[in-house]
Amino acid sequence: MKKFVLIAASLLCVLVTGCKNEEKALEEYNVRTEATVMDFNDRISAMQADTTLTADARNAAMQAAYDETSAKLVEDGLKMLRQYPSGPLAVTVLQNIAAVLEADQLQEALDLLEGEALEDEFVKQLVALSGAKTATAEGQMFTDFTVVQDPADSLGSTVSLSDYVGKGKYVLVDFWASWCGPCKQELPNIAAVYNKYKGDDFDVLSIAVWDDPADTKVAAEEEGVIWSQIINAQQVPTELYGIEGIPHIILFGPDGTILKRNLRGEEIEAAVAEALGR
Q: Which residues form a coiled coil (predicted)?
């Protein structure tokens, strides 16, 4: 579950027509956004304190609250961008909602921008992110990459995604890191799928990102990761695939087609079973 980021910014305006209107609009927008985020935080705190809820019920309620809140923030943000598509106000709004935008919503938001907003560095990064997500969306062919497998290896041996994907098997790829709690929580689900379906037509690959390979190796041993690994990918695949947070789990088809993205929990086995026809 992504965290909501509230950017409480003020506009540095020059004396031009409409500046006062933008200042007022931003002030009102910040008030609405802060109220929405605070309400979300209060609801989550109440759910965490409710001892009558089972873990599954609590997680479901928290996810529902997240979905409802993110939808509200996105709706308000897109409305603001339609009214004020250029300048620092547009950038501030986009900074507030970027983390909760789905791929199609991100592109919609970017398409609304005009003028100087398009020259902002943050916006340029989002344009690149949107392009990466589009290029690696479900139904697209995989994008290959090659990295040094282990900096501690004096030979500098390299490994590529194409060493595993596009070789005639369905491959479940888990982008993770040793420091990532939610990543470790998904490992039992991945292990269960691996043990149940591994064979000539299915395999699993873990790819460590944003991590120290030495830490990855220790965590993999502690967590019982017995399938293939790429331990030194760093930011290379996250930039290519537009991955903003981990774990990010992708199911690839035998020819390398991206079948499913961002699988979690029970979705993992459901996607694999459906793909394998079992």
A: none
